[in-house]
Amino acid sequence: xxxxxxxxxxxxxxxxxxxxxxxxxxxxxxxxxxxxxxxxxxxxxxxxxxxxxxxxxxxxxxxxxxxxxxxxxxxxxxxxxxxxxxxxxxxxxxxxxxxxxxxxxxxxxxxxxxxxxxxxxxxxxxxxxxxxxxxxxxxxxxxxxxxxxxxxxxxxxxxxxxxxxxxxxxxxxxxxxxxxxxxxxxxxxxxxxxxxxxxxxxxxxxxxxxxxxxxxxxxxxxxxxxxxxxxxxxxxxxxxxxxxxxxxxxxxxxxxxxxxxxxxxxxxxxxxxxxxxxxxxxxxxxxxxxxxxxxxxxxxxxxxxxxxxxxxxxxxxxxxxxxxxxxxxxxxxxxxxxxxxxxxxxxxxxxxxxxxxxxxxxxxxxxxxxxxxxxxxxxxxxxxxxxxxxxxxxxxxxxxxxxxxxxxxxxxxxxxxxxxxxxxxxxxxxxxxxxxxxxxxxxxxxxxxxxxxxxxxxxxxxxxxxxxxxxxxxxxxxxxxxxxxxxxxxxxxxxxxxxxxxxxxxxxxxxxxxxxxxxxxxxxxxxxxxxxxxxxxxxxxxxxxxxxxxxxxxxxxxxxxxxxxxxxxxxxxxxxxxxxxxxxxxxxxxxxxxxxxxxxxxxxxxxxxxxxxxxxxxxxxxxxxxxxxxxxxxxxxxxxxxxxxxxxxxxxxxxxxxxxxxxxxxxxxxxxxxx
Length: 675
Fold this sequence. Notes:
Elements: H1 8-30, H2 38-54, E1 78-80, E2 90-91, H3 94-108, E3 116-122, E4 125-132, E5 135-141, E6 147-149, H4 152-156, E7 173-181, H5 184-196, H6 205-213, H7 218-222, E8 227-236, H8 244-254, E9 263-265, H9 268-281, E10 289-296, H10 299-305, E11 315-319, E12 324-336, E13 341-353, E14 356-362, H11 366-372, E15 379-385, E16 389-395, E17 420-421, E18 429-431, H12 437-448, H13 460-468, H14 483-486, H15 494-507, H16 512-518, H17 526-536, H18 539-544, H19 547-551, H20 558-568, H21 571-582, E19 606-610, H22 618-627, E20 631-633, E21 642-645, H23 651-659, E22 662-664, H24 666-673
Parallel strand pairs: 2-11, 19-20, 19-21, 21-22
Antiparallel strand pairs: 1-6, 3-9, 3-10, 4-5, 4-7, 7-8, 10-11, 12-13, 12-15, 13-14, 13-18, 15-16, 17-18
Helix pairs in contact: 1-2, 12-13, 16-17, 17-22
């Protein structure tokens, strides 16, 4: 039983332990210079933990024991930043940096001396941290720059974030901005764990950091080994130093972790030199960077330069181009997707590119292979599109060995040996066998995946084990699974079994449009699934619809209508639907009043997509836009509302800027759509 009598000696001991532990946390996580061993630290932590257990009145919000304190929340409330968190314009070359400097001098005057501060651009998630009287009281995501999500409990778990500022002269109120990131080693370890559990891996460390920060349960975040680099002050009740360089030193004095390679540059040429040096050295770091941020040092000059509605005029992000390497094509294999599409994939000699070893690169379709002229045995140039997706840029023709021959798409499916066909006007070759085992696997993974039935824990590994064990043959069997069957899967203990059964049970009551999308009907993405659900309201009504009924829905053309009618005309598909009904899956929705407009914040907005997106395919981004009432166009005009620009955006981005069309990045797109 806890002893509630707190003497002065006990209180002093607790305060001393807190101070000592916080000092060692700062040395270890911020300065990378520990003074004691892990065992010695653990002993100090246990002493404080025991003391607070005996005297609950001693527990303070800034105690090291409170980094994972409150129970899981039900959601994230919105908070307004005291200082606006603007995004940065991008530069892609020394010439772009020179143009940035010219714009700076155009405002300040050609003869005015301008110094710059260069900071490595972390590939993470921007956050704000608010301290009142030196104690962390709120942490939030960037959001739209003005309003973010309150993730204070999760940010408390990041050891490099001080719960209490170090200096005794802390301001009454200060809002600090920084970037939370995941070190590469932690990212690789996390993905291995997720694959072992049958969960989909994260695409890159930035996605992993974002997913970790948005966990409802802070205990999950605490296990993800996140860190932070702070780079500015958005608001402060005390006067700030004269320059950004001094602001960084002030942050360090307060106990915040800074980037380890910040420099001051006398002019833009020195800044460009720094950018060039790190472009070639980026892989020597233990974390991902995607460029360098160049800022005007003088805060007075920053105020004179001001900002646009989106970006400060005194800072720019110099983005590194995708890293390219050469390797050899060992083979060209063919994969089979859920719709029967055959996709050629190059098998490569392992090569380290942009932070990870790649062994495969998609070649998309036979036309793409022919266009690039890729052959088995070729030396090729590879890179990661958007620093994420491996792709072959081109073939080194002079290095081609003798005796190679052009690659041809096989005439039979590699999974089931059925004939393949390529319809006129299409670039995709497909397997004609609806019972193809490869399609079956992909269909089940799609059905259980995010955006469809969202069955947490039923990823590719788990689906493979269920198929190999003979426990399922199609998606209808998922809802017949029993605990005893799942318990036979390798690595599935009591808690894992309970979690998967709970996830399956939760999927029974998904909205009908998710079921329609999850069925994998060809040409039916999430947007079309919503449209047909709004029109028909039940699976039975949809299954009975004819081509004319479907074409009567705005946005549904002949090709989609034919595909839907064909799907519900296949006896095997109807048998699967009967299994789903018997398994208790929701098969109907009540059409919401005003459903054609409600929930469509992008109604009649026109989008153009350009460049390589890191977190979405073009098809996924288009479906999100269309599901919210927007339209996707292939060309930019004055009628375009938004241009969504990824990495390596080209002429469409230039035209958007010329026409004054609003350009958004993926972060803004996610905030806008909730994706």
